[in-house]
Amino acid sequence: QVRLVESGGGSVQPGGSLRLSCKASGRTFSSVSAAWFRQVSGKEREFVAGKRWGDGTDVYADNLKGRATISRDDAENTVDLQLNNLTPEDTDVYYCAIRRRRWAAVSTSANDYDDWGQGTSVTVSS
Predict the structure, then answer these.
(1) Greatest CA separation found in the chain?
(2) Nearest-CA neighbor of 63 among 93, 81, 87?
(3) Can you give the pLDDT at residue 28?
C-alpha cells in the first residue's frame, strides 16, 4: 500500500520561502515519477513541478519556473518542493502525487496520477 505524507506548509509573507516535503512508504520515489500539484477549493488541481523516475529529470509549470525547485532524496525516500519569492497567488493546498505505472513520464495532468497525499496548506499574506 502506497502512502504519501506532505509536510512543511504554513503561513509566510509575500517574498518569503517555504520548503514542502513528501515522504513515501510502499514505493520508492526513484522508481516512479512524482509531482507536486496545488489546488484552491472549487478549482482543478494545477501542476507545479514533477520529477521523472530514474534520472530525475525535472519538469516545471511555466508560471513557477525560477521560483520552484523540486528535489529527491533517495536515502530518505522524499521529494521536496522549494518555493521562493512567494506571492498571495501561491496560496493553495499543495499535494504530492505519484504515477504507479513503471517508466511513466511526468505528466502535468492530475488524472494521470494514482496516489495522492493529504495535502499541506500554504498561505501567503502580509
Answers:
(1) 43
(2) 87
(3) 83
Query: Percentage of residues in the chain with pLDDT exceeding 70?
Result: 100
CA distance 48 to 69: 10
For the cut 90, the answer to whether the pLDDT of residue 79 exceeds it is: yes
**SS3 of 110, please?**
helix
Q: How far is CA 16 from CA 49, 67, 69, in A?
A: 19, 11, 15
Residue in 38, 21, 122, 32 with CA at minimum distance from that of residue 81: 21
Residue 53 confidence class, pLDDT cut points 50, 70, 90: confident
Query: Alpha-carbon distance 44 to 38, whole Å?
Result: 9
Report CA torsion sign: 5, 41, 16, 51. positive
Amino acid at 81: L
**Which carries the bigger pLDDT value, residue 64 or residue 95?**
95
